Amino acid sequence: MYVHVGIYIYTECFCCEDRVSSFSCSAIMNLKVVFAVVLLSALAITFTHAGIPKCCIRITKNPIDPRMKVERWERQYSNGACDIDALIVYVKNKTTPLCVHPKQEARLLKITKLRKLRRHLSREV
Question: Which long-range contacts (CB under 8 A, 24 or more apart) does 26-33 make?
């Protein structure tokens, strides 16, 4: 519904149910649309991590210490999004994972087998 008062034409705005100029109503609607798009984009980036892989940039030269409490490890290949082959090692009580040479995987397997064997032997005694 249009009401002509002086120079401006006022209309009832669906978004705020007030009598405002048609320019103000469209600006309010545009602002709401922009806000919704920004909010949905932020949620998508947060939940999908924007599809950005976490890659090791360099490898530490120190070998894995057998006393480290290794929780798990993953293999990073250079044929995908990452530039180097690496082993990503997640250590308990450490916020960032270690990046080691892939040859260290044999050492990690040996350490975990020994740890399991020790645990098993300590339960038997």
Answer: none
Mean model confidence pLDDT for the chain = 76
How much is the pLDDT for 94? 87
Contacts with 4 (C-beta within 8 Å, 6 or more apart), sequence order: 10
Contact 87, 105 (CB under 8 A): yes
102: CB partners within 8 A, 6+ apart:
75, 85, 86, 87
89: number of CA atoms within 13 Å, CB side?
25
Q: Which residues of 83-97 are buried (b: 16+ CB within 10 A; e: fewer)?
A: eeebbbbebeeeeeb
Q: What's the rounded Cα separation, in Å, for the pair 122 and 106? A: 24
